[in-house]
Amino acid sequence: MTHPQDQSSVVVPEPVVDAARGASRIVVLTGAGMSAESGIATFRDARTGLWKDFDPKDLASPEGWQADSDLVWGWYRWRAELVRRSEPNAGHIALARWQERAHVDIATQNVDDLHERAGATVLSHVHGSLFEPYCSDCGVRAQLDDAAMSEAEADQRVPPPECPVCGGLIRPGAVWFGESLPEDAWAAAEDAVRAADLVLVVGTSGVVYPFAGLPAIARSAGATVVEINPVETEVSDMADYRWRATAAVGLPALVAQL
Questions:
Q1: Rounded to whole angstroms, what are the CA distances from 4 to 8, 41, 53, 256, 258?
Q2: In the predicted model, what is the mean pLDDT of the chain?
Q3: Tell me, what CATH number does 140's domain have?
Q4: Catalytic hit among 92, 115, 125, 127
């Protein structure tokens, strides 16, 4: 696990500190940039090596699953192993520490488990999780040991495990192209931003809906919206304050001042 660096040289915008100090209900919305500093590639960037010639929809769609479930399971098992080899960064750790002393809900687009491994509680994995596979037929959650989701480079095509309840195939827990978001996860994220005083949007490009619409929902409900991202994004114009910092630099510095 990476540890926070000295934050004394990081200047946190005063309005951001004031908003965080005055908020009683905080929501942090995190995207791929949250995990980038842990070395986790985005979905498309992860298509390297054995996977570089595959169309994303061959690897992450109901149609791809029906056509070749062994290929899809192999891809997701490989991605899960890459996550296991990564560590939470200073931003993940800062959010976990903030949760210890304030009401901070985390809703994430990320399918990794780095928030949890840093010690944080995640309210909502809006796009599912690599580590919550379930039966493609009956929907029951599967409990798989690490051996069933390891050996990252061993095989490109790996037969999925069978469901112990109905015998169907266990599928990855991430949301695929063409699928609806998990209703409970989406409702939890939407309810949280509607009730929030402060919403931080961290490391998301703002191009994937409906998640990208959450900052606008928050503002319409009266929350202060702060974007923490090193670059301009599609949600920048929804933010009251825009802080050009990365998650692993900005979040520890902010939490240190609260």
A1: 11, 21, 38, 10, 16
A2: 90
A3: 3.30.1600.10
A4: 127
**What is the pLDDT confidence band of residue 48, given thresholds at 50, 70 and 90?**
low
Residues 162, 211: one domain?
no
CA distances from 73 to 51, 67, 70, 123, 217 (A): 13, 12, 5, 26, 35
Catalytic residue flag (residue 127): yes
Q: What is the pTM of this model?
A: 0.90
Q: Using an 8 Å Cβ cutoff, are 202 and 30 in contact?
A: yes
| Pairwise CA distance, residues 86 & 109, whole Å | 18
**Residue numbers of the domain that contains 93:** 1-39+87-131+181-258
Please state the domain count of the chain: 2
pLDDT tens digits, 155-195: 688 899 999 999 999 999 999 999 999 999 999 999 999 99
